[in-house]
Amino acid sequence: MEHVLIIGGGVGGALAHDLALRGFRVTLVEKGELLSGTTGRHHGLLHSGARYVLHDIVAARECWEENQILRRIAPQAIEPNGGLFVALDEEDLAWRERFLEGCLAAGIPAREISVGQALALVPALNPEVKAAVRVPDAVMDAWRLALPFFATARANGAVIRPFCEVQALVMNGRAVTGARIIDHRTGGSEAIGADLVVNAAGPWAGRIAALAGVRVPVQPAPGVMVSVAGRLTHMVVNRLHPAGEGDIIVPQRRLSILGTTAWLADDPDRVAAPAEHVRRLFAQCARLLPAVRTLPPHAVWSASRPLLLSGQSRDPFAISRTFDCFDHARRDHVEGLVTLIGGKATTMRAMAEKSADLICRKIGRDIAGRTRETVLLPYRRYWP
């Protein structure tokens, strides 16, 4: 069976799982620890899709479908606590009907509830809210959702190699035949041959593609998140308007995550967490839950979203959160390379399925995917 080399230890884990189930020989390399990039550094929302219904209906439908699948295949990693979208002012109220219509169009079960019911569900909620809508959001642990994909892939024969950084792609004319890596644990360098290389490096995907002389439409878009100690809410709380800055609070274990800011960057390795962004998150999230303003930061971090550019917008909140995969033989006349970009943690399984389907078509094999029904192993099974 063909050997597939996957570059990237984030969403690449879901692809390794899918391909291993289909019988491929799989090797995955990651330059650092698994999930040390974007996939392990998000705020932990398992999207219902409602966050995108006002401006990105495709991503909304993708999220709702995957929300339901992940609840079945990885229940141990998910807290099915639901979410609220609340209107704080008349401007928010003006979005209510479009929001409910968008949820209906995307198939997302949304139900308007009274302000009294919302306050009973989330007592810390701003008592001045004007309206509330309940949606099937959930919370996931960034590592405990993704690691089961790696655990199951490894159990099915995939070779997972963290701390192995790609330094070059091995080329035979206009064909990619593998990659040269350095193992940071040993300092050794080696070439790994493959029948197909998949570039799943997230915001670093542009760098990997450039090693083969091609460009991909990926835009790193960093954002800052802040955690505060204590669960101020047991439900996800969103502001009822098009997704923007400082308009979501996600309960995560014994913390509350304030999210998020966004800007566009050229280099995902040169990203900070500006103090001004932290101040804005506190100010804006305190409008949702007033108790926020009394708390100090517990932790501050940033991560770069690998946005898929499909238009001219330079607004990081307006760029779609959908995903795509490219066969560079068809796109750039470079054989042996596939790139997967865009998406989010909620859609990692779907991203992997679409890429694996493309790979099967490319090599002329009719092998159906099985990840929609295959229950993942517990994350602890990753370690022997």
Structure explained in plain terms:
The chain is built from ten helices and 20 strands. The protein is an alpha+beta fold and about 375 residues long. It has two domains: about 5-40 and about 145-215 and about 320-380, FAD/NAD(P)-binding domain (3-Layer(bba) Sandwich); about 80-140 and about 220-310, D-Amino Acid Oxidase, Chain A, domain 2 (2-Layer Sandwich). The strands form four sheets. Strands 6-7-5-15-16-17-14-18 form an eight-stranded mixed sheet. β11 (about 175-185) and β12 (about 190-195) form a beta hairpin. It starts with a strand and ends in a 21-residue tail after the last helix. The model has no long low-confidence stretch (mean pLDDT about 95).
CATH superfamily of the largest domain: FAD/NAD(P)-binding domain
Please list the strands of the largest sheet in the order they lie side by side. 6-7-5-15-16-17-14-18
Oligomer: single chain
The CA-CA distance between the termini, in Å, is 26 Å
Beta-strand level of the residues, as a percent range? Answer: 25-35%
SSE string, helix = H, strand = E? EHEEHEEHHEHEEHEEEEEHEEEEHEEHEH
Coarse morphology = globular
In total, the number of strands is 20
**Would you identify the regions where 5 or more consecutive residues have pLDDT less than 50?**
none
Whole-number radius of gyration?
Answer: 21 Å
Text of the CATH class of the largest domain: Alpha Beta
Average pLDDT rating: 95
Contiguous helical run count: 10
Number of domains: 2
The biggest beta sheet is recorded as: 8 strands, mixed
Structural class: alpha+beta
Helix content: 25-40%
- Reported CATH architecture of the largest domain: 3-Layer(bba) Sandwich
